[in-house]
Amino acid sequence: MMARSRLSPHWIVLGLLALAIVVVPNPIALAAPVEQHFRIEASAFQYTPEAIHVNPGDHVTLDLVSTDVVHGLYLDGYDLNVTADPGQTATLFFTADRAGSFRFRCSVTCGALHPFMIGKLNVGSNDLFWRAIGLGALAVVAGVWVMRPKGDRQ
Amino acid sequence: MMPIELTRNRFVKATLRARWPQFVIRAIALAGFLFAILSGLIGTPVGNHNFSIVFVWIVWWALLMLIVVPFLGRGWCAICPIPMPGEWLQNGALLKPHGKGLSLNRKWPRRFRNIWMQNIAFTLLALFSAVVLTRPSITGLVLLLFLIVALVTSLIFERRAFCRYLCPVGGFIGLYSQVAPVEVRVKDPAVCAVHTEKSCYTGSQDGYGCPWLVYPGTLTKNINCGLCLECLRTCTQDNVAFNLRSFGADLKQPSGRKLDEAFKAFIMLGAALIYSAVMLGPWGALKSAAYAIGTPQWLVYALTLLGLIYVILPGTFLIAVALGRKLTHSKETLKKSFVAFAYALVPLGLMAWIAFSLSFVFASLSYLWPTLSDPLGWGWNLFSTANVAWQPYLMSIVPFLQAGVLIGGLLWACVTARRISAEQQQGRNITLQALPVMGFCFVITGGLMGLLIG
Amino acid sequence: MKAERFALLFVIVLVIGVPLVAVLARSTSDTIEMHAQMADNGGWTPSNLTTQVGQPLHLRLTSDDVVHGFAVGQSIIPPVDVLPGQWTTTTLVFDQPGKYTFYCTRWCGPNHWRMRGTIEVTGTTSETITTTPPLYVTLNLDLDAPHPSEVVPDEKPSAIRGAALSVKRDRAAELDRTQSPAQLWQALKAAPETAALTDQQIWDLIAWTYRSRTTPERLAEGRQLYQQNCAACHGETGQGDGVIAPSLMKTPMPGMTMTGHETVAPINFMDAKNMLGASDAILEGKIIRGGMGTGMPYWGPIFTPAQIQALIDYLWTFQFGQ
User: Fold this and answer.
1) How far, rounded to the nearest angstrom, does the alpha carbon of residue B19 sit from its chain's CA centroid?
2) All structural domains of chain B with their residue ranges
3) Which of B9, B68, C55, C251 gives a 20 to 30 Å CA spacing to A133?
4) Is A91 touching C (CB cutoff 8 A)?
5) Residue of A nearest to B134 (CA)
6) Which fold has domain A35-124?
7) pLDDT in tens, B237-248
8) Looking at the domain assignment, is residue C252 inside a domain?
9) Residue pLDDT, tens place only, C177-229
């Protein structure tokens, strides 16, 4: 009986809002796929540039140029891996068919901070991030509006 | 939810009261700990192939932050090997009490009966973390230092003073153990009130007086209870229970909130932010600065860390709390409100650490396989996994998990802030007073989201 | 009390036994354990080995920092990768006595090439090997003297265009290794049979000459040697702009005295004025002897004469196109 009365309109509204935040399509129009060419320099423990941006569907060529010791590049989400010696540029070619923000990380032990050598590939807009921010805002609303401690309901 | 008394089950109770299971686990943990020290000192200097780095900072950390602290609170402290040698000397025994031990058994100085020393110890560790986390020899030395300090402390002071007042890890485990769904509590305080022997604190032939310097009869929070289960063994009245309870139950306790614990919440939140930026961010200069101890760059890193933890975060939070009080004309003192609301940061901070650990742990977990086969990096191949290649796990899913964890933490923090506000306010003012604190939590969460999944 | 003793035994066995077994289990075979570190941190440990002709040398190699590689200069023993925290084994057998140099094969920083060590092989052998000293030694060439070409082509000389010329002959056989392309150009310009050619046509003819004296296989070998050993400084396209170049000093100012401790900017192989004035003998000399403190390593103990010639053939492709 108590449990039933808890399913107040508040919850329904919040639930619908949360659903909307999760599923509402991204209003930003997609650009037509193009060829993109990047040169990423890898040094201990930095990729330069540290972040690159492409549009979904782009055909991406990544030239990995190691400038001190052997480095690698493993791309999260795409599960791609490449290794480059200094003086021997390695190339990764892929179609950016998954949207979102993906970390790439060094795949060849290159010194003490190797596990933290990280860069970013942004494909289109980072929907996960914006939806998470939206849900976070909704969490604040829920905290204010619905999830009141007992004895606090007027 | 009412706590469920797990010790009502005979088997559970017997297992928890028995000494051997806990002793065996601790002894194995001690062997592992000593092996980690040895491996750090004489094993390969390559961190991701050394037992000390892989088992302490990846495997242990993953178990601790993703499983033990959220679900068992101080469960780690219950089996922690670090204070063991000292405890054995103190007790003069490995198992049950008998005879005399070796310790001056001094009382811990009154002015240090707080967790400020733990706060400082953790901050120091954070300042040097880029080196400690990656260099086996430094990890080995730090672990050895833990062992020595714990041993010396127990030879001078009574009980587990090291754990209670010095251990940098114990400090935050204690803070976050408030959200864990388990607790040791007395069943009926009235029984304790008339029980004059207080064997739970003084000890009996069945067990030691509370090693954590806590009187179980008035225990209301997990923070200082090490789950060592001695009181379960020493209570002659069968009045101590091991309970399953709702998550975050301790946060509903208005009493016993302290400034040192409030600052622990800021330290942990600030450290989560800094680590997310330094270790998981794409900025190599930050990483190098954190690593190059003693250089001007490192000094900037150190001052930024200290500034964020001790000034910027508490300062901003203080403004948020003051604003809420102003809006609602609160009659509480500012300090009391500040300390009380800081407990809303406990679930936020824990979830931030879980989110941070998720990506770090799953990216590096595959180092476990070669290290299992060749823990010292000497070329062994015990389980034929010495040459398993590095491969990040679940990297497509982890960002979604992180988002979910951070959103959950924010919601939890907001609800907690509201509940804390309700202790002081009525009606509309409850929300109004908590609102700036919620705003603070939202901004922090947004920042973490930007660093971890942005 | 019995339980207490048992507990103590349990702890002692675990706490002392596990590390003890670990330490005792450390292999004590006749295998030599070799650690690799960047040259700045000590390079190879040990860095000097001795053995006898025909006596195999068993090595276990690991890296203590980054990726390295192990190879023995002027030998056919296949190189192996030396990876951080992992172990590689290799066995070396020598059939000639002498002093061999082992070296790192994977670039590991500006001082990568300093990561070398020696193997002293003693003993006798039935066959005697006579080595001829390189041309720069017999001719007593000054390798450090500037050798600018007074003439340069307007566009990159092309071997295909050169091949199409009616006057072409099998000049590859008569290519003088002490002569620079610039000197050859002057000679052809003066020779009656080629006097009718334009300046560029003479360059094309020279390009064809250099190209036709080598083989695609040799060029491929030279290219691989270049990429692995030279490109980090001289650049993948030969322009002297390799990734290590910024850490080497820029071209020295005029009038500056070299102390032998300053490094200089790597040579640009695309620079026609400089390259076309060099001869095979000079290039060979520079590769063998190195830059004497300029940062250019000495490859004498590393490359075989055939490898050096393959490398030189490849270097000419930066000037002479197809």
Assistant:
1) 24
2) 1-253, 262-452
3) B68
4) no
5) A112
6) Immunoglobulin-like (2.60.40)
7) 999 999 999 999
8) yes
9) 899 999 999 988 888 888 888 999 999 999 999 998 899 999 999 999 999 99
